[in-house]
Amino acid sequence: MASATTVCNLHNITESSVTWCKECDEGLCLKCQEHHSLSNEMVNHSTVQITEYEKLPRDNLNIAQNCNKHNENYTIYCKKHESLCCGRCIVESHNECVDFAKLADIVLNMKTSNAFYENDHSLVELSDNIKKIQQKGENNLTSLSERAYFT
């Protein structure tokens, strides 16, 4: 994962990123974001606010975006093999397969589904509960240490 504050390649200055482009795998300052969203090549790229990107678990950020074999972006999910595929993978290894899904559609459906929001809410609650349990454990250790000291 790159830092949220990066050197802006377009302007050659250090500028804070305001969005993250998953496909480009880089943070974008406000000016670059505007250029990025207007570019024909990048109009379908999915971006998120940098504050939301930084909240993602590190495990999610380490998921490969490119095919190891062809070094191209994954764009398709093969349902038969339950695997991510680039365009060349489809031609070379999945030409017999018939059940595919576009990754962009899967991501869009996932982001808009109730299950996504329910899971997000549950994870926030779980995180809060873990913090409370940790705090209680620390308080209990402190209390036991104090009792042992006075005994």
From TrEMBL:
InterPro entries: TRIM45/56/19-like, Znf_B-box. The keyword tRNA processing does not apply. It comes from the Eukaryota. Keywords: Metal-binding, Zinc, Zinc-finger. Residues 3-50 form the B box-type domain. The keyword Zinc-finger applies. GO terms for molecular function: zinc ion binding. This is B box-type domain-containing protein.
